[in-house]
């Protein structure tokens, strides 16, 4: 059953890509499938319709993401992307008179800077989370070693401590002869 679902999903995606490709290439030559967005003088009225549709979709996505009661990190970044996209569309809609004018270059520069920001900040945040995880793992290893050393006083507690160390993967061996834990050298 999963194979049928995968094959059908793959077929739908390939069909959608081919339909978009056909519409884009057929529309540029014959103007039958898609309307022209640019002519010799600049943008056609169809460009305004496309931009207005894009603005409506972005605003709807922004409202739907903002209406959720609990904001998760991914949802917040999607809201940031929708804000970036809204600014990008309005910049291209109102400052562009045609190709290669001041608004065109301003929109491209804004797009590069905003996309770089949207990609760089989650990477930096992920690095910060990983650093905090490494610090927490180090503290956990120190605490497990302390617990294993303290268990030297009672043999049954030493056995419990050794099993706990091995359960969490912190110690490679717990020697019952002197009640200490040997911590693995691979960082965990």
Characterization of the model:
By secondary structure, the protein is mostly helical. The chain has a domain at 1-34. It is built from 5 helices and 2 strands, in the order αααααββ. The protein has helices at 2-30, 45-66, 73-94, 102-150, 155-167, and strands at 171-175, 180-183. A hairpin with a 4-residue loop joins strand 1 (171-175) and strand 2. Helix 2 (45-66) runs antiparallel to helix 3 (73-94) and helix 3 runs antiparallel to helix 4. It is elongated, with a radius of gyration of 29 Å.
Using only C-alpha atoms, the radius of gyration works out to 29 Å
Order of helices and strands: HHHHHEE
Strand order of the largest sheet: 1-2
Helical content class:
over 70%
Judged by helices, strands and strand pairing, the structural class is mainly alpha
User: Which of globular, elongated, flat, extended, rod-shaped describes the shape?
Assistant: elongated
Identify low-pLDDT runs: 170-188
Largest sheet: 2 strands, antiparallel
**N-to-C terminal Cα separation, in Å?**
40 Å
SS field, number of helical segments: 5
Total beta strands: 2
* Strand content range: under 5%
- Average pLDDT number: 76
